[in-house]
């Protein structure tokens, strides 16, 4: 199994990994929609790049709209393909990236506590 990142950017504990995300620098914006945001982030210590996806659904009530975030490490080749594809080609370029890798989820469902957890697979949260 390939080890991604370093202890600073990709610790074993999901809550610690979510906290570590706040220290990653934006490397490249890929999709910038109000309810679907895709960025490449990078660790300034080890250089590891991460695909960051935020999705949100709007229910027009109370302002507590559900948001779902995922973070997954990508190889330099995968990062280059995603950048080259841009917004129009993101979904196709994404393809199987990350399907067999551990990825971090951070869910903020309406009216519930936020949770951070690990999973495999490449399903992104719902969005408008």
Question: In terms of topology, how is this protein built?
Answer:
Elements: H1 14-21, E1 25-33, E2 36-42, E3 49-56, E4 67-74, H2 76-94, E5 103-108, E6 115-119
Antiparallel strand pairs: 1-2, 2-3, 3-4, 4-5, 5-6
Report on this structure.
By secondary structure, the protein is an alpha+beta fold. The protein has one domain. It has a six-stranded antiparallel sheet, sandwiched between helices.
Mean pLDDT score, rounded? 88
Task: Quickly count the helices.
Answer: 2
Q: In which order are the strands of the major sheet placed?
A: 1-2-3-4-5-6
Q: What share of the residues does DSSP label as strand, in percent?
A: 25-35%
N-to-C terminal Cα separation, in Å?
36 Å
* Uncertain runs: none
Number of strands: 6
- Class from helix and strand fractions: alpha+beta
Total separate domains: 1
Share of residues in helices: 10-25%
Shape: globular
Rg measurement, Å:
14 Å
Q: What's the story with the biggest beta sheet?
A: 6 strands, antiparallel
Q: Spell out the helices and strands N to C.
A: HEEEEHEE
């Amino acid at each position: 199994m390939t080890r991604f990142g370093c202890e600073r950017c990709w610790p074993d504990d999901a809550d610690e990994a979510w906290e570590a995300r706040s220290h990653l620098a934006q490397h490249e914006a890929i999709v910038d929609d109000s309810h679907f945001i895709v960025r490449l982030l990078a660790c300034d210590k080890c250089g590891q790049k991460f695909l960051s996806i935020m999705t949100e659904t709007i229910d027009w009530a109370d302002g507590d709209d559900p948001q779902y975030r995922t973070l997954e490490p990508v190889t330099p080749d995968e990062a280059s393909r995603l950048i080259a594809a841009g917004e129009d080609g993101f979904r196709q370029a994404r393809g199987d990236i990350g399907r067999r890798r551990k990825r971090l989820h951070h869910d903020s469902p309406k009216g519930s506590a936020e949770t951070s957890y690990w999973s495999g697979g490449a399903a992104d949260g719902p969005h408008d």
